[in-house]
Design a protein that fits this description.
Structural class: alpha+beta
CATH class of the largest domain: Alpha Beta
Number of helices: 3
Shape: elongated
CATH architecture of the largest domain: 2-Layer Sandwich
CATH superfamily of the largest domain: Protein of unknown function (DUF541), domain 2
CATH topology of the largest domain: Alpha-Beta Plaits
Strand content: 35-45%
Largest sheet: 5 strands, antiparallel
Order of helices and strands: EEHEEHEHEEE
Radius of gyration: 27 Å
Helix content: 25-40%
Length: 214
């Protein structure tokens, strides 16, 4: 309880409120591709390009829309060894990664396996998202405000004072949002199929609220 504060709200009760909401993921994003090394740059580029083309063809054959496949990263880097303190050129490293957006979550493992079967040798991450994100964010914020109100009422009741019906100030203390569920996917071994468990997405919100009291 404060008699003065920086918000120009004298005689206030200041509380923090937190809220959580969940949503079922219905979209998968996978970053995968090809990393190769070699001495001849033209051969390296041609090999990577052929593998990427095969991966794209395999994914579209599984129903992934072409517009949902985009280049996430492309790089060519010289590689060196150090021999007796001297830098010795070893060759080149070529990286070409694709970001693949997949409707739903059930096909993600099958799509990763198809990419690997057609030349992908790296899967950097898998994340799940939800089309209900905005609704879940709003729910979390609503719960945070209600949580703050309940705290303020408990403090007022304990002190035997009356609380204003409407707060004099409400401030969101952190951006409402969520961290997408992420996985590091390992290469499937033999006939083993990649299995992913998307779980649920958790959205968080927090507010700082000032109530006048008398």
């Amino acid at each position: 309880m404060k008699e003065q504060n920086e918000s120009a709200c004298p005689f206030t009760i200041e509380v923090l409120g937190e809220g959580l909401a969940t949503a079922k993921p219905d979209e998968t994003r996978v970053t995968l591709g090809v990393i190769s090394e070699g001495e001849k740059l033209e051969e390296l580029q041609a090999g990577n390009a052929a593998k990427i083309a095969a991966i794209v063809q395999a994914l579209t054959a599984l129903g992934v829309a072409r517009e949902n496949i985009a280049t996430a990263s492309f790089a060519i880097e010289p590689q060196y060894d150090y021999v007796d303190g001297k830098q010795v050129f070893r060759g080149y490293k070529a990286t070409h990664l694709l970001q693949v957006t997949i409707a739903g979550t059930e096909a993600a493992g099958r799509i990763i396996d198809a990419a690997v079967a057609n030349g992908a040798n790296t899967v950097t991450d898998v994340s799940f998202r939800s089309s209900m994100a905005d609704e879940a964010q709003h729910d979390a914020l609503t719960l945070a405000v209600r949580n703050a109100q309940a705290k303020a009422l408990a403090i007022a009741d304990t002190l035997g004072v009356s609380l204003s019906a409407v707060p004099c100030k409400v401030e969101e203390t952190q951006k409402t949002g969520f961290e997408p569920v992420q996985f590091k996917a390992a290469m499937p071994v033999g006939d083993a199929a990649t299995t992913l468990e998307p779980g649920t997405l958790t959205f968080r919100a927090a507010v700082r609220v000032w109530y006048l009291y008398a």
